[in-house]
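Our preliminary data section would be incomplete without showing what the modeling component actually yields. Below, a chain of 95 amino acids is followed by its predicted structure, encoded as tokens that our downstream tools consume directly.
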Amino acid sequence: MMFTMKSKWNVNPTDPVTILRLISELEGASYILDCFLSDDEVRNTNLTDFHSIKSRLRADHVTINTMLRKFYKLYFKLNKATDEKTREEIIKACI
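Predicted structure:
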């Protein structure tokens, strides 16, 4: 079975720059969650169940950081690859 990827909206899935763009978005989300995790930020939102919300934010933060580690590894592997075929094989192995 042949694995094909579609390029959509100027996004080439096998280009390391695409992975860097995704990493940038995830880093931004991680930073914002980190800000929300400070006690003052969450308390000022007038939320009734402070500890429950903070634990959910912490879980989301952990999830995003796990994704970040995965995509950083993928980026460095793709960056080392010299041709498109090798990059497609790397992407297939990660999915």
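The mean pLDDT is 82. Residues 50-80 form the longest helix (31 residues). Preliminary results of this kind motivate Aim 1 of the renewal.
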